[in-house]
From TrEMBL:
Annotated GO CC locations: cytosol
Protein name from the UniProt record: UDP-galactopyranose mutase
UniProtKB keywords: FAD, Flavoprotein, Isomerase
Species, as recorded: Methanobrevibacter arboriphilus
NCBIfam families for the chain: UDP-GALP_mutase
Cofactor requirements of the protein: FAD
Amino acid sequence: MLYDYLIVGSGFFGSVFAYEVGKLGKSCLVIEKRDHVGGNVFTENLNGINVHKYGAHIFHTNDKEVWDYLNQFAEFNRYTNSPVAIYKDELYNLPFNMNTFYKMWGCKTPEEAKKIIEKQRNNENVQNPKNLEEQAINLVGRDIYAKLVKGYTEKQWGKKCSELPSFIIKRLPVRFTYDNNYFNDKYQGIPIGGYTQIIEKLLKNVKVKLNTNFFTDREKWENIANKIVYTGMIDKYYGYCYGKLEYRSLKFESEIKNIENFQGNAVINYTENKIPYTRIIEHKHFENTKTNKTIITKEYPIKYKENEEPYYPINDDKNSKIYKKYEKLAKNEENIIFGGRLAKYKYYDMWETIKEALKTAKNEIN
Ligand code: FDA
């Protein structure tokens, strides 16, 4: 065996793990099937703008340990996520707050807004929501549902809200203050200079092989290290023996615009069903970059097929049952660690991925 660990995947999970065990003298080899490190947090500098290649990545957490940890590797700015939604020719602030309610109904006080939402909920009289539509109306009333939830959610999941399970929307944050800050977390920001520099620092002393897929030479990789840290798809690892796990995918369409400022905000959601993309990202606003041109990316949700990137796990009953079977196999492995969003078939925010990697590395060392 040449290495202590073979790490499959150079996203946040694999990179934090490699850094942590590397500090204690363990040797790691990272293999990555893409032509760059970083997984989905990869940012690429184009025309002086740091472009979030796999969708907008805004760091936010309440966990001071993770926040301090990441701040070792980059300075963060004080970016606050305040997305805007466009429905037909109307523009609304998100998350749903007094600015949204004022625009929707002209009401100025929390009392007035609460009364309108309550009245709309009572009109519908939904007792036990059976689907996402009923659940959303029960939470925010008909108007907000129709203009700001319905079209966006149907595009996101490729199904009618009346056919989607209610569990997808457990909560819809409603705020009765004039506060457009999307996240409630204590710490929030974007690393100045992008995320890739963080990954590069984490992997500075680690051997990395890009354009290398674990499955093209599986036998070789299985015999190169004492242990494997696997951050790819768990169903693929087990040859889909219990069936394929379902995902939702995304298509990104980027363009350079010959203007300084295209939309005045980093994130604008398009909540109308007729427009095929869910949002437009204007990357320069993440870091307040001063350039003559700008780069925008339209985000289209699409059906997941093999060879597409698996972005969002569909954690419904059917897939959860399949995942549980794979999880059981994984738990019985002695020399393989499964970590990160694809191996755990779970949507993790960045801070959760980092937290999990730190915990896993600590367990290995103790
Ligand atoms: P990640 O997918 O990043 O890394 C896995 C790596 O393994 C990939 O590089 C892949 O190529 C490689 N790999 C897989 N199979 C392989 C194989 N067979 N051989 C070799 N390599 C292989 N979070 C947040 O906090 N704020 C945000 O704003 C967002 N925004 C956001 C937008 C979108 C569109 C998505 C999909 C996700 C987010 N996230 C987020 C979540 C964030 O992207 C996530 O927490 C981390 O990227 C997860 O890191 P991992 O290392 O688990 O996976």
